[in-house]
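Hi, here's the filled form for the chain we discussed.

Project: internal
Contact: R.S.
Residues: 344
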Amino acid sequence: MENYNKDTALKYIKSVLDSGSLSGNGIYTKKCHKWFEKNLNCNKAFLTNSCTSAIELAAILMDLQPDDEIIMPSFSFVSVANAFLVHKCKIVFVDIKASTLCIDENEFKKAITKKTKAVVLVHYAGVSCDIDKIVKIAKKNNIIVIEDAAQGFLAKYKDRYLGTIGDFGAISFHDTKNITCGEGGVLLVNNKNYIARADIVWEKGTNRQEFLRGEIDKYSWVDIGLSFPPSEITAAFLYSSLQIAKKLTKKRLTRWNALYKKYDKLGMGMMPFIPKYSIHNGHIFYIIAPRTERDTVISLLRELYVNATFHFVPLHSSKFGRTICDYDLPVTDLISESLVRIPL
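And the returned structure, exactly as it came back:
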């Protein structure tokens, strides 16, 4: 399923090439920022070269200290954990719900200690975590909430877009996502207390944004930071995709719903569960096969030319994960050994 508009993308990219200015934070970066802020109703958006970079940007803004604890599900991608491990934080893995494959808020509550700095919510397959319950627990314990909405672009929790509810929200535009620019991401900064510093950290630790706005007569190095903005070619490509994003999401959901009906009749495994509070985006279609039959189901589907596969190897049971932690996460283990992804 094509997830971009080739003609419009080429038109915008040509305009960038004709301008002679290919570096980031140009006209299309600004257009993307405005699109996010207007359409998602977030306080401030920062385009990044990947969703990994978006989470890394959030990690810097959090002023992490060695041994700070970050609670997150093990059923996730490695980028999330890495963003905090480089700051020498301790990753505390907790189990997921068998129904939604999202973090179990009760397990989150039990894992909180005096050292807990943040919790990461992974909205698996574009299906929302039970955010109200988690945010209530987090606020009571002064814990930062980070939404990993890498798979959740244009999905909602009740009437709010994923990524716009926690202190930070990270979204991916990797080639595997519903809306893409090849490699790219965005950090949505919803907590206004972080916006001013985010402007600086995003620009390599300089106050260049103030200079560009005419607020100072020269800019210089004022804080730590990294080079987060993507090239203007990437931003131009993404902007062309954003203009048709809602249309593409609607088309994808139509296909997802059609698959649900077909596989529900086949009875090969448990079907995805969408809670009433969640408006998903059809990012991933999967079935949960009987644990001992998962590989057989995949083989049978491939014989029918359906390129079915499994998904995450849980972080706690990965080669590196076993060197840093020892957790018993029965639901995560069961799901990882039973899930079958079906291509859309």
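Let me know if anything looks off before we file it.
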